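SEQUENCE-TO-STRUCTURE ENTRY
===========================

Backbone structure tokens: a row of integers, each naming the local backbone shape at its residue.

Task: work out the structure tokens from the sequence, keeping to the layout shown below.
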Amino acid sequence: MILTGFQFGSRLNLLGMEYCHMTYNLFLNFLRKKVKIRARLGLYYRSVVFIMKIENSPQVNGDMVATIEKELRYIAALIKQKGREILSNYTITPPQFVALQWLFEDGDMTIGELSNKMFLACSTTTDLVDRMEKNQLLMRVKDTNDRRVVRIHLLDEGKRIIDEVIKKRQLYLEEILSNFSGEETKLLQSSLLKLHQEMRKE
């Protein structure tokens, strides 16, 4: 069979297109395999890292919990003792300091609300409020939305005392933390925040 020049040229173009198409498919298959290999390697790498983290992280056990509980108890006692030393220069008692602190941080509240925060009976909280009201640290005010509700409002003298006491406590802690590195201080802060958040869930 004799092909004309036009037919011969058409065959060459067709063969060229088929060759390009075949090369393109081979290239796509290569890319797909490469992507799959990379994905599998990435998954394997992430799995290894996760397993290593688990193996290297200390598991919580009874001895660790006992040590943490004991150290927290000792720290709380030391802070309480230092707090009493600071309060000895003022005319308020430790329970009054706690009440003033709640009012300072959370604002006006009723006797019942303050009692719940301090885990005290309403009668005991009422006695605390009476003494502090006589010393002009706080006062009882009517709720603006409901005149039947009485709230405890912190006065300027109470704000001054609680602000001074808290700052002195912070200075004491700052002196202790001066022996910590910046990284240790950040780690302690994040750990205490997480512990506090977890305990508030209970």
Summary: The longest helix spans residues 5-56. Residues 62-201 form a domain with the Arc Repressor Mutant, subunit A fold (CATH 1.10.10.10). The helical segments are 5-56, 62-87, 94-106, 111-118, 122-134, 156-177, 182-201.
